[in-house]
């Protein structure tokens, strides 16, 4: 089978390289020429642990192009993996998807081809895409072209393991098209491939569940899954606030409730809240879908509000200790929205830096991998870069830990804190194992901070 992947971002690249590793001939297509040129040179435009190694192993099966004319006619299966970012209204911006669907349609060549939607899209998008195909495909014939919804569940930072050993594969569409996807995914479904040595099969993992469903249910499954995870995080953060009021410790509380198998411990970490390209936009999209039907979604709206409040809370904690921020030097450790990625989309650190600068603080930021990307994407923010975490702390009045990188966990905090001007640490990821051996003010989320100074 020949595969074309349209959109070589975090999802498209992972999918392309994974399918090439499984032995398929894969063409990665993107309208961003710079990205394609880097890929042709064997250079990954994103940071994802282990992806460079898998790219080397799968290189022989991969081609990179900007040309729909060249890649679409020869493809048996076409994956759409373009971005669907949120508009200011909260609804997803479908212009990339529309443009990709039109370009695909114009280049379908009349043989049996399947268009698989991996982008996260509003419910009903598959029908809308079918109409685009009808309007723009030269050889359109419903029995020969079909759309399958195959939402993606990979997480940045663990994308390879998530792709090779998924919990489930969701396939929505007509039976003949879904059957073709079963064929394509057979090595994953049967786990018949040889695991790459650097991404071994997790112990206890057997096979993914396969969910065969309708287009609409598949689209809904993706949103409902992300919204539920976002909800769990906001729930933990709401409980964390109450823990601070009553003097309980949120980690002991979530550890305690997580032992109930119906709840589980995952996605209950209190902190600065969720960020990234998915949870914010997908929760807003679901709320606006509800609005289209006059259906209110108060639980989701509250989850979004709690998440927003967490970011404000971090700065309020800092203000409580430093009082005036004007002229103070504040270090921000971590810029990516989570560790093991360079993705800056909707990162809490962005809001921290913006707010601190607007309050007159001078901000020095450090991230192990995301600084080059921040130079391109955060030009509108006022901050300087540090060469290391300890360099960021030297002479600072306070530090905010914004991302839970292992590098920060492993820092010699006692030594680093001694180099600060005033020793205020706002651990917005509950990363530090307390207490420090040197005198310092450390605030975490959902822990009893004792009396205010
Ligand atoms: P991304 O922004 O990293 O990548 C999108 C790519 O599409 C870019 O390289 C862009 O240049 C390209 N593109 C845009 N318009 C194009 C066009 N007309 N033709 C060809 N290429 C085009 O986005 P992403 O993070 O990979 O997300 C893609 C989709 O997958 C989104 O809908 C997202 O919600 C969903 N998703 C993302 C993740 C994640 O962790 N990033 C996880 C699951 C699902």
Question: In words, what does this structure look like?
Answer:
One of its GO terms (biological process) is polysaccharide biosynthetic process. Keywords: NAD, Oxidoreductase. With 453 residues, the chain is α/β, with parallel strands linked by helices. It contains 18 helices and 14 strands. The protein has three domains: 210 residues, 3-Layer(aba) Sandwich (Rossmann fold); 83 residues, N-(1-d-carboxylethyl)-l-norvaline Dehydrogenase, domain 2, CATH 1.10.1040.10; 135 residues, Rossmann fold (3-Layer(aba) Sandwich), CATH 3.40.50. It has a six-stranded parallel β-sheet, sandwiched between helices. Strands 11-10-9-12-13-14 form a six-stranded parallel β-sheet. A two-stranded parallel sheet has the order 7-8. The protein starts with a strand and ends in a 9-residue tail after the last strand. The relative contact order is 0.09. The model has no long low-confidence stretch (mean pLDDT 95). The structure holds nicotinamide-adenine-dinucleotide (NAD).
């Amino acid at each position: 089978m020949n595969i074309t992947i349209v959109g070589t971002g975090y999802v498209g690249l992972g999918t392309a390289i994974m399918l090439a590793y499984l032995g398929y001939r894969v063409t990665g297509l993107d309208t961003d020429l710079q990205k394609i040129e880097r890929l042709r040179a064997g250079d990954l435009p994103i940071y994802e642990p282990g992806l460079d190694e898998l790219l080397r192993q799968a290189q022989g099966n991969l081609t990179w192009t900007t040309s729909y004319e060249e890649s679409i006619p020869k493809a048996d299966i076409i994956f759409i993996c373009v971005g669907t970012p949120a508009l200011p209204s909260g609804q997803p911006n479908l212009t990339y998807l529309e443009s990709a669907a039109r370009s695909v349609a114009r280049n379908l060549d009349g043989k049996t081809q399947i268009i698989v939607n991996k982008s996260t899209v509003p419910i009903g998008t598959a029908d809308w895409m079918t109409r685009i195909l009808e309007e723009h495909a030269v050889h359109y014939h419903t029995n020969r072209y079909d759309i399958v919804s195959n939402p993606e569940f990979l997480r940045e930072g663990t994308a390879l393991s998530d792709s090779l050993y998924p919990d489930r594969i969701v396939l929505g569409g007509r039976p003949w098209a879904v059957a073709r996807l079963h064929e394509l995914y057979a090595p994953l479904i049967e786990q018949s491939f040889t695991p790459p040595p650097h991404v071994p099969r997790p112990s206890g993992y057997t096979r993914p569940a396969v969910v065969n469903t309708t287009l609409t249910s598949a689209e809904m499954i993706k949103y409902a899954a992300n919204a539920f995870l976002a909800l769990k995080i906001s729930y933990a953060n709401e409980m964390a606030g109450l823990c601070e009021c009553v003097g309980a410790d949120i980690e002991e509380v979530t550890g305690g409730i997580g032992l109930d198998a119906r709840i589980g411990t995952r996605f209950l970490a209190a902190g600065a809240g969720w960020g990234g390209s998915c949870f914010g936009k997908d929760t807003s999209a679901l709320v606006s879908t509800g609005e289209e039907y006059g259906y209110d979604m108060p639980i989701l709206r509250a989850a979004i509000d709690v998440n927003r409040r967490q970011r404000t809370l971090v700065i309020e904690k800092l203000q409580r200790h430093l009082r005036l921020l004007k002229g103070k030097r504040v270090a921000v450790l971590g810029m990516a929205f989570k560790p093991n990625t360079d993705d800056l989309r909707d990162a809490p650190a962005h809001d921290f830096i913006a707010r601190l600068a607007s309050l007159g603080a001078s901000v020095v930021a450090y991230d192990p991998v995301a600084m080059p990307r921040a130079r391109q994407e955060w030009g509108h923010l006022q901050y300087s870069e540090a060469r290391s975490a300890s360099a960021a702390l030297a002479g600072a009045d306070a530090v905010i830990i914004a991302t839970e990188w292992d590098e920060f966990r492993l820092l010699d905090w006692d030594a680093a804190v001694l180099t600060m001007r005033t020793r205020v640490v706002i651990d917005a990821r509950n990363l530090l194992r307390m207490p420090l051996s040197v005198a310092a003010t450390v605030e975490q989320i959902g822990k009893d901070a004792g009396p205010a100074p």
